[in-house]
TrEMBL record:
<protein>
    <recommendedName>
        <fullName>3-isopropylmalate dehydrogenase</fullName>
        <ecNumber>1.1.1.85</ecNumber>
    </recommendedName>
</protein>
<dbReference type="InterPro" id="IPR019818">
    <property type="entry name" value="IsoCit/isopropylmalate_DH_CS"/>
</dbReference>
<feature type="binding site">
    <location>
        <position position="134"/>
    </location>
    <ligand>
        <name>substrate</name>
    </ligand>
</feature>
<feature type="binding site">
    <location>
        <position position="248"/>
    </location>
    <ligand>
        <name>Mg(2+)</name>
    </ligand>
</feature>
<keyword id="KW-0464">Manganese</keyword>
<feature type="binding site">
    <location>
        <position position="224"/>
    </location>
    <ligand>
        <name>substrate</name>
    </ligand>
</feature>
<keyword id="KW-0028">Amino-acid biosynthesis</keyword>
<keyword id="KW-0963">Cytoplasm</keyword>
<feature type="binding site">
    <location>
        <position position="224"/>
    </location>
    <ligand>
        <name>Mg(2+)</name>
    </ligand>
</feature>
<comment type="function">
    <text>Catalyzes the oxidation of 3-carboxy-2-hydroxy-4-methylpentanoate (3-isopropylmalate) to 3-carboxy-4-methyl-2-oxopentanoate. The product decarboxylates to 4-methyl-2 oxopentanoate.</text>
</comment>
<feature type="binding site">
    <location>
        <position position="252"/>
    </location>
    <ligand>
        <name>Mg(2+)</name>
    </ligand>
</feature>
<dbReference type="Pfam" id="PF00180">
    <property type="entry name" value="Iso_dh"/>
</dbReference>
<dbReference type="InterPro" id="IPR024084">
    <property type="entry name" value="IsoPropMal-DH-like_dom"/>
</dbReference>
<feature type="binding site">
    <location>
        <position position="106"/>
    </location>
    <ligand>
        <name>substrate</name>
    </ligand>
</feature>
<feature type="site" description="Important for catalysis">
    <location>
        <position position="141"/>
    </location>
</feature>
<comment type="subunit">
    <text>Homodimer.</text>
</comment>
<keyword id="KW-0432">Leucine biosynthesis</keyword>
Length: 360
């Protein structure tokens, strides 16, 4: 049966990187994958068109699709919008929430060809392969009450609520334990249980789940230490499971271990396997429109789409091999270029991946 893919390019470098990723998807179609692809605006682009970051018809298309590929949203043009509930980022958060995409997988994998591109010493990062499992539809991002208000004496204040129900913790915990079972069987749960009650509950639930996965070694770490350990000795980690905000921050840090934020893909999945796939980085307004953006995180997100939502693991492997082969050819976008490599544009990188894919 034909599977439906919705592509949401978004803002800034979003259209440039999704264009290249879409070409890779089209190459998969030529290789026999039965898909139809549709595109729609989201984020700032949709605000400019209709006044809201996620149009109701786009949400409906998203619900009806088997998988979504998203570029990135946001940018300075919309940063001063007074109503945060209507900014571009809200479109992305609404998609995650409405489709119940609670399980966010962010694999930080260092391609051996990029050891020199990392800002850390080769011996610290070579062979790095971490999977961050981030809870994506709860925690402080969505907790109520939230707001900005002014007291009678004129003092302004703002507040958010960091809240998790036990079932939200349990279901992301299961995703993480199962992921660890398929990998090196080590799971580190990251929390702030020395200060925050909600994460004491988080830790309790992870401990309660552990006996169901006797082959997985569970450990716990405070988030500040985890940030430090990620740059000190990242290879101690296999799978990390954490809440929404800590996962956001730690995954950007982990990205740099792999050479560039432009290398980190992601999958956001719900219980039925439907998913949204996006690079972990943002819309990079500082480099938008200049052909400087690295499209590999988005292309690798297509590989995750094939593996996790479209049941086409062989094509996923083929895309990942194509990326490896392009790096073997010494082609690099600016963010991962260094002496002795050849710097290419976003589009040239896309060309190279498509042709390596077709030659596999
Ligand atoms: N998923 C998303 O849509 C998403 C994620 C993060 C940030 N954002 C939004 O993006 C905007 C910019 O945020 P930011 O500057 O904090 O983070 P960013 O990730 O957009 O950029 C941070 C730095 O990394 C560089 N960078 C990012 N992606 C790159 C790529 N593919 N190739 C080369 N370099 C790359 C940028 O040039 C910049 O110097 C904000 O509006 C933010 O809300 C969106
Ligand atoms: C743009 C923003 C809402 C988003 C997040 O905080 O989740 C981004 O930083 C990410 O990592 O996907
Ligand atoms: Mg982020």
């Amino acid at each position: 049966m034909t599977q439906r893919i919705l592509v949401l390019p978004g803002d800034g470098i979003g259209p440039e990187i999704t264009r290249q990723a879409r070409r890779v998807l089209e190459a998969c179609r030529e290789a026999g994958l039965d898909i139809e692809i549709e595109e729609a605006p989201v984020g700032g682009a949709e605000i400019d068109r209709s006044g809201v970051p996620l149009a109701p018809e786009t949400l409906e298309k998203a619900r009806a699709s088997d998988a979504i590929l998203l570029g990135a949203v946001g940018g300075p043009k919309w940063d001063t919008m007074p109503d945060i509930a209507n900014r571009p980022e809200k479109g992305l958060l609404a998609l995650r929430k409405e489709l119940n995409l609670f399980g966010n997988l962010r694999p930080a994998l260092l391609y051996p060809q990029l050891v020199e591109a990392s800002s850390l010493k080769p011996e610290v990062v070579s062979g790095l392969d971490i999977m961050i499992v981030r809870e994506l539809t709860g925690g402080i991002y969505f907790g109520q009450p939230r707001g900005r208000e002014t007291r009678e004496d004129g003092t302004r204040y703002g507040y958010n609520t960091y809240i998790y129900d036990e079932h939200e913790i349990r279901r992301i915990g299961r995703v993480a334990f199962e992921m660890a079972q398929k990998r090196n069987k080590k799971l580190c749960s990251v929390d702030k249980a020395n200060v925050l009650e909600v994460t004491i509950l988080w830790r309790d639930i992870m401990n309660e789940l552990a006996p169901e996965y006797p082959d997985v070694e569970l450990s716990h770490m405070y988030v500040d230490n985890a940030a430090m350990q990620l740059v000190r000795a990242p290879k101690q980690f296999d799978v990390i499971v954490t809440g929404n905000m800590f996962g956001d921050i730690l995954s950007d840090a982990a990205a740099m271990l792999t050479g560039s934020i432009g290398m980190l893909p992601s999958a956001s999945l719900n219980e039925s396997g439907q998913g949204m796939f996006e690079p972990c980085h943002g819309s990079a307004p500082d480099i938008a429109g200049q052909g400087l953006a690295n499209p590999l995180a988005t292309i690798l997100s297509v590989a995750m789409m094939l593996r996790y939502s479209l049941d086409a693991p062989a094509l996923a492997d083929r895309i990942e091999r194509a990326v490896g082969s392009v790096l073997d050819q010494n082609l690099r976008t600016a963010d991962i270029a260094y002496e002795g490599t050849r710097q290419v544009t976003t589009e040239e990188m896309g060309d190279a991946v498509v042709s390596a894919f077709l030659q596999q």
